[in-house]
Design a protein that fits this description.
Elements (H helix, E strand, L loop, with lengths): L19 E3 H20 L6 H21 L14 H22 L4 H47 L2 E4 L4 E4 L5 E3 L3 H6 L1
Antiparallel strand pairs: 1-2, 2-3, 3-4
The structure holds zinc ion.
The site of zinc ion has 7 residues, from loops.
């Protein structure tokens, strides 16, 4: 009996499948390894530390694995900036509060303060177009990054590791790259 999820994936380098593992599976198992370590640390007491030593170094290797085979996160999405108009709206509100205080407590300073406020608004109006264009560019960049990460994550889900050659490859592809270059392959 065979089912569709028993498809044999062979390594394009050695042509074998004996030590080929799905990268997502390695990653999940390495996370579980970390969890085991945390539990071991909590229970750590001097009488069992000799045994724990082995476990810790074992999960140290697991941690390295999870770093090596983790999902594509290298290109971090920049935090999305506020729309320039929103910023100005908040700033204007604060300025009005300030002006109100000046009006009630220091009326002599009101005119110069109004002048500063008007100058700031004018400056913004003059630069608004440029600021909006910049904001739009950033927004597009973020969208592009998101798409790239999505695509890389999909590819990651189809990536296999051959422990014989220490290479990774995407299922069905005839090309393999050294495991340490997985990120480059996912984003290529
Ligand atoms: Zn191989």
């Amino acid at each position: 009996m065979t089912s569709s999820d028993e498809v044999v994936i062979t390594c394009p380098v050695c042509g074998n499948n004996t030590r080929v593992y799905k990268v997502t599976k390695i990653f999940v198992e390495s996370l579980e390894g970390n969890r085991l370590k945390e539990t071991a640390d909590e229970r750590l007491d001097p009488s069992v530390s000799a045994h724990a030593g082995n476990k810790v170094s074992g999960s140290e290797a697991m941690r390295k694995l999870s770093k090596r085979f983790g999902p594509p996160t290298k290109r971090l999405v920049q935090p999305r900036g506020l729309h320039p108009d929103q910023v100005v709206l908040v700033m204007s509100f604060l300025a009005l509060v300030l002006l109100w205080h000046i009006f009630t407590q220091q009326r002599g300073a009101l005119l110069p303060a109004l002048g500063v406020f008007a100058a700031a608004i004018t400056l913004y109006a003059m630069n608004r177009k440029r600021l909006l264009a910049k904001h739009g560019e950033q927004h597009e960049e973020v969208q592009r990054d998101k798409k790239e990460i999505e695509r890389a994550t999909e590819r990651w889900g189809e990536t296999y590791y051959c422990a014989v050659d220490d290479v990774v490859f995407i299922a069905g592809s005839s090309e393999a790259v050294p495991a340490d270059e997985m990120m480059n392959m996912l984003f290529s």
